[in-house]
Amino acid sequence: MIGPGKGGALSFIDLAQSAPVTTAPLAFSGSRLHWADLPREVRSRIAELAGADVVSETSATTGFSPGYAALLGLGNGTQVFVKAVSPEQNPDSPELARQEIAVAAQLPPAVNAPHLWWHDDDGTWVLLGLQPVDGRAPEQPWRPDELARALDALRDLAEVGTPAPAGLKPLEEDMAYLAAGWERLDAVGSDVDAALAAVGEHGDWLRRNLAALLDAAPHGVPASVGRTLVHGDFRADNVMLAAPPDTRVWLIDWPHACRDGVVWWDLLATLPSVAMQGGGNPEELFWSHPNARGADRDAVRAVLAGLTGYFVHAAVQPPPPGIPNVRAFQLAQGVAALDWLRRL
Description:
alpha+beta; Aminoglycoside 3'-phosphotransferase, Chain: A, domain 2; three-stranded antiparallel beta sheet; 12 helices; Aminoglycoside phosphotransferase domain-containing protein; Aminoglycoside_PTrfase; Kinase-like_dom_sf
């Protein structure tokens, strides 16, 4: 079981070995608007902001936003990557777009993030025009060389993002919500039953250890506090590998960015998805990474316990409007996180 040890430290027993997760659901919302689906006035506003008529579109094929996301070719020979969303696609998506606009103004210039060229918000439709980047998403399952590039990008982000920009929300606030996942799960008996069934071979362990996880997860909130800029949603579908000979790794989709996170938070949060996408053992990847140097093992356990609860609880909720595929993805993350948690 997992529980508080001396001085609030966490300890694990019953470390049953189980097979790593290597099959992942597609990181895609399952639905996406096309240019012709946008209202006429929205298309006109995009063309006005872009400075030319739109002559071509290439839709994004990854990511969970149900709104519009496409690389647009313009009549003047230039390109712009455009996001457009309204509450009709998903009631929460416009606010996420607004958060991304706010974050863009705060990111240090050295961060490899596409520049926000323009934006617009009429109270219903939120529009973003972003610098197009020449690159592609990493192959799945992960190739070792591409995973190394992505994890190196986390090292670079920590270097240029410490200290974090003061204008962002503190990670502690988001982590308090994430770490309460086990509490939300435990409050609904049918959700507990669904989770025990959904996590497969981890169900018996979860049943025996749920009370201890409820005690452990809140320790992940103070354990997340540091001085570093946190992307907050670092996954393969939010990474673009620049085309050779350019070795840059572009980090995209920043609405969840926070300040004052522990330097290894993004690394830990992404490794369940890396494991489920065939990238390797998260334990080995974590402790071999420079961001984890000197990390307190009890703090790492506490944060992982909190994040695992978020994934498992979310996985057994109804899918949000316009994003039918996200629950399967969160379940796969939760199973991979449970597998790691039992070994850590």
